[in-house]
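Data availability excerpt. The first of two example chains:
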Amino acid sequence: MAPHSSPRPARRPLTPAPFVLRLCLHLLMAGLLVLAAVRAHSAAGTVAAAVTGVVYAAGSYLPPVRTSRRAAAVWLGVLGASWLAMLWLTPEALWVAFPLYFLQLHLLPVRWSLPAVALTAGAAILSYVGHGAALNPGVFIGPLLGAAVAVATVLGYQALYRESERRRRLIEELIGARAELAAAERHAGTLAERERLAREIHDTLAQGLSSIQLLLRAAERALPPDSPAAGHIERARRAAQDNLAEARRFVRALTPSDLEHGSLAAALERLCEPGAGPYGSEAGAYGSEAGPRVRFSVSGTPVELPTPYEVALLRIAQSALANTVRHASASRAEITLSFMDASVTLDVVDDGEGFEPGSVRPSSEGGFGLPAMRARAESLGGTFTVESAPGQGTAVAVSLPLSPEDRSPTAGGTA
């Protein structure tokens, strides 16, 4: 017995239970055919049993029968014809009807298999009566009971198999979702670590090397022109300058992809484009019909900012816009980046529903956006404020201090 259907995907290797069932069916068919051949009252009956066995064996191993439902139906027709011939010659062929029930139920659609089983049971009963057996309830009950058991067994097994396949697919989907979630968490962790390393390098190595450079320059100016230490100080200053440039290259390499190909202003402007999500590739709809219209503007004279400043301001803008889309039900929002003499300020304002800032608490669905934004700003020595009220929209403002070095043309974006 083999699986047969119209062209279908390749089956997975049989598990032990189906393999054992098929083996038992093969053995049952072989045993009943041998019994019918031995107890046949004529050579013709023995030959018919042998032919039926050959047809059954051929169908079990021919590839077309395994891959095409039409070929399987043709094979069942030939097998049924040989069985009817055998049934005509010997009443012992009656018992072969039982494995035929399973074959018909397994290989044919339900709308064809149930009538085929009924016809097979009827043929077995008529043959038994036609060979002169006395009429009694067992003549009818035996074939019909066997047919009922076969129908219940096969249909029940098929229902269990479908349920098992549904659960298997569900488990595969869950495993796939878990793998995707793990990959997303690893990616988020990688980005967070990159930002942390960039901030640490900027705040420690780069700033330390910059201070060493300034001190060496001051020492160089304080030395007499003919001092033998002047050359050593000059070489030390150049070494500090080279290492500062290398530290800045490390910081650039760890910069988020949003800032790799442009300034902070350009990254914020891209964030406001229609279809842009809070993290670039995520589904969001800033500036589109599915979300608020977002406008970006720059105030003051732009200067290069330290990389940690750019990363913090970009992430705060992304988080604030994400809150606007998810919670504010706003129709308009505006991002303003302001450069002033002693600070750089980012404002995100919307005309949404608003809320009571003091009533916000972290929730199981997130709710850590405002504390995270505040922590980013305060970690860089800045300030973070939220102004909102029910029905009056929300304004988020972050201000980061700028030192003279930060405002120099060579500072900021490189360190």
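And the second chain:
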Amino acid sequence: MPATPTTPPPALRPYLTARHELLWDEADVFAEEHIAPRAARMEAAPGRVERKVADLMAARGWFAVTVPAAFGGLGAGHVAKTVLVHRIARVSAAAAAILQATLIPVGGLLHFATYEQKGRWLPRVADGSLLLSIAVTEPRAGGHIGGIETTAERARNQWVITGSKVHIGNSHLAGAHLVVARTAEAGVSTSQALTAFMVESDRPGLSVSDHRPGLGLHGFSAGRLDLDHVRVPEDNVVGEIGQGLSVAQSSSILYGRPNLAALSLGIHEAVVATTTSRLKARARYRGALSDLPVLRDRIGDMEARLRAGRILAYQSVHLLDQGLPCDADLINAKYLGHQWAMQSTQDAMELHGAHALDRGYVLQRLWRDIQHTYPPAGTGEVQRIRLADAAFNEDHIQWSERLAAEASWARPDPTAA
């Protein structure tokens, strides 16, 4: 699988500024020099959390790519974020997952934290001294936000949080977690029953279970947090009391879903590159496998899906950077981006024949990694329901539009080089 830098395809030029193209080159060079040599080691040691890659990305300020310069960030916007996740995922989806998992809680802070809270947390993200996680999913509720059982009770000027969270990206790397907990009695509408809190990882009562590797994304941790009467001060509340659902939903739609679209896109590109390289190199009938029409037909399908997924991923975040309503476009990019990449990966496995089953071959890693872009930020079923809402004009909350005005001061400068 080639890891050498490439120029952006012409179809993406309408969405990329000169600054984006510089970031594209920077990410490609970084991936070739620092991630590609580590990819095999990460794959061979799934029980090990990859910290060095996280440190290297943090040193470049990439965890604060959407954070305004006033708080030490790059202030480069969502297209830039997609460039980084996409180009890193092309070489290692696990490394890209580390990057995108911190970007989601950063979005929650940007949209809901007070100015003082942003000044407290975001400069540390920008200088690389702090990684974050967002902790919403629970053992019994899964991704059903209305079923959250973790509670937060007020105790004078503090809150006491008790409960468990699972599948938390960067659980073992994060120095603080954006935790959504129930703050209202049973019977209160979910829209008013939840609250978001910043919880530092060294708070007494907070424990992180030992890392257990998943099917794919080896080197990335997505573990369990247990909170046993963890006390946090009042000023760790993010947003207003009862606004936790809004924090979780907006972060998922505006950050989680486009991030996963970019992750799927990087894997998809690697799958197509790996497969075409194999077919061109494999001799058959006085030529190569790539000469056979039946195989070229399959590759044509893969290429069509890849090109369509690429446009969806970048067009949707371009709209977001412009402050235009695009919730359904972000949802669609995640949904079809995964679906198309998954189909191409399965096709690639079949086109490789028995070679795809050889232990250690890169295609096995890509097949396992793409499975991880389906459940987060809503499964395919959830995405289709939300798209149906859009079809019936029932998608009443447009987070992209609602938060655009208050985020306009952070919007990237399209003329910046």
